[in-house]
Amino acid sequence: MENTAHQIEYRPRTGSEAMCEALLDEGVEHLFGYPGGAIMPFYDALPEYPLRHVLVRHEQAAAHAADGYARATGRVGVCVATSGPGATNLVTGLATAQMDSVPVVAITGQVGRGAMGKDSFQETNVMGMAMPFTKHCFLVEEPEELYETIRRAFAIARSGRPGPVLVDVPKDVQLATCGGGNWYRRLREAPPPIAEPALEAAALLLRNARRPIILAGHGVILSGAERELMLIAERTGAPVVTTLLGISAIPEDHPLYIGWPGMHGAASVNRAIDRADLLFAVGMRFDDRITGDPKRFAPNAKVVHVDIDPSEMGKVIRPTVGITADAKLAMRGVLSHLREIPDERFRERARWREEIEESQRPERAREEEASEKFGPIRILRAIKRAAGEEVRLVTDVGQHQMWAARFFEFTRHNSHITSGGLGTMGFALPAAMGVALGCPGEPVWVVAGDGGFQMNLQELATIRDLGLDIKVAIMNNGYLGMVRQWQEFFHDRRYSETPITGPDYEHLARAYGIAGRTVREGDDVEEAVRWAQEQEGCVVLDFHIDPEANVYPMIPAGMSVAEMIEEDDAS
Amino acid sequence: MTPPEEETVLEVRLAAGVYPISRLITTITGKRMPLESLTLARDGEGRTHAALSLGCGEEAARRYAVLLSGLEDVEEATVAGETVEVVMASGGIGPAAEGITHTSCGELVLACGTPQSVESWLKDRKSGGEVVLRVGPLVRPGGGRDGSRIP
């Protein structure tokens, strides 16, 4: 393939100026960071450029905010930190982005080149540290390479399977004058053509299946393939399920959407996958939280696997047909080969959907009953009603994450933002800052547990400073709830180090200059949520929920649908 | 250590420098590739050639090759044919053996064949000689791009 190159106008400038210009040329508007010794030249140049820097209160939050920004906008998120502890604090955020294929560029300061390798103050081997958690990383040792390296970092972050890229810049490189040479910009390469026989085979399998299921993952959202997903579903009459990160790839009120499977997915969906004769899996990677025991996952199904990353083919499940391609292009290709489906097949598929619907009825009845009581379902429904269809929900990690994924009806495209692969507690609050800045004027709610919220609650100060309109609902059960649930199920209720205390969140919010309210059983949930929605700026609602509420159903790790624990079994 | 039942060699061509090597090793470790041995060499243009001997079959090795190909500074990663090469210091060529092609280059003897035939040849050799390098076809000790590939 050919790389086209464009020459960029050259004029002498410092490394720091070159960094800012590269960011501007990439269309960056916001960056999240925290200054320090080794990145000071960059921060010195920054005010001269129309780049909005958000001063977070901890570098981890900078990485999560850049991640949230990228997930919500589809653009590359940018975070900045100094050397040593600044850089090490970024790592959890970069690993989170890597696991969920989110394009982020992290810029770190490094000690001067002459001081490197001498255990200098705040020196750390950032490259060595970041390698396992990034798509790529650079140490820029020549000032002339700085501009191009940053541009390249953006290109790498967003190309193919997106991911985080780190650029480590020694302090003296930031200060140096970039003399001589020309700067070039590489244009993105065109995607390779998709093998036609694979598309044909996939279309044929979709046409012939009696009990097909479409399994949509994050790749559908990343490639903007929601329309193609719906077209394939509607043309084939195949029910659609999503992975956790695929939630909101299709509106959940779409008649063909049936829910999401996996460890805490709906029992009816897990059973449907168990019976399916075709799984059309697109933009997903058969994560162990979806498959459980991969040998017993979808045992009756042929599998069409579409993913942009060729190394995912056969990693967990060996597909009948593997298509290495962008989700949108692949689905367009499949649609172009999809011949009319015989009426008899459509009738069979209608019966198949009726069977699934039948198995969903008791689940829905239970959900309705639970929604009447004080608890997660009622809280989530109240948020949806108060915030409206446009709301973007950012969740943390744990029980509340699963409740939100199950019971908050996501009807807007790309409205569910969460840390899926890495399961990073403390993600939601800073990520919501990125979402709110990337999507100004749109309603943003955070749902977090009391454990995860305490991991990055210092960002309330950032949110307050920026006047961000983020509403926070803490599902406060006084436990690290998901771990406690596992202890209840698998460790004879020995709640070792899972009870957790915290501050009075209402007062904590006030200390940050933010409105707060505590909501207990017997209080009016809907009124509290409406009140929060009506306030200007950030609000923290502290919901004291049942300490031992569990997430059902649950497929124990590495097991199959046959070992699924349902609420009735547990009681 | 018991030798693996299956063995496949991956040939990887990397950009020059220590970071590409570091990233290669980090990836091998992170993805838990069943690495039996790793040989590195440098070509005439300063790029690194790596031969990874993996204790797995060709299908798994092919997936690892695809995974490594995805790294930014990996130019090429392929499953080597069923041939490996050994470079031996002195000892002469010795008697001809089935499935082995060999040639001498000064004091060095270079031999090529399937892993099994090379193993068997080495075992049967009576003339001794020390194996200094055991690699797949791409990796050459100090060789250049047009290197002295064994026929």
Quick overview:
The complex is a heterodimer of chains A (571) and B (151). Chain A is of the alpha/beta class.
Task: Kindly describe this structure.
- The complex is a heterodimer of chains A (571) and B (151).
- By secondary structure, chain A is an alpha/beta fold.
- In chain A, the strands form five sheets. Chain A has a six-stranded parallel sheet with strand order 4-3-5-6-8-7, sandwiched between helices. In chain A, strands 13-12-11-14-15-16 form a six-stranded parallel sheet, sandwiched between helices.
- In chain A, helix 6 links the parallel strand 7 (136-139) and strand 8 (164-170).
- In chain A, helix 3 (59-73) packs parallel to helix 4 and helix 15 (376-387) packs across helix 16 (399-407).
- Chain A is globular and about 70 Å long.
- The termini of chain A are far apart.
- The model of chain A is unreliable at 1-8 (pLDDT under 50).
- Chain B is of the alpha+beta class and 151 residues long.
- Chain B has two domains: 8-79, 2-Layer Sandwich (Alpha-Beta Plaits), CATH 3.30.70.260; 84-135, no CATH class.
- In chain B, strands 2-3-1-4 form a four-stranded antiparallel sheet, covered by helices on one side. A four-stranded antiparallel sheet of chain B has the order 6-7-5-8.
- Residues 136-151 of chain B have low confidence and may be disordered.
- The A-B interface holds A 127-128, 131-132, 135-136, 139, 156, 160-161, 309-311, 313-315 and B 19, 22-23, 26-27, 29-30, 59, 63, 66-67, 69-73.
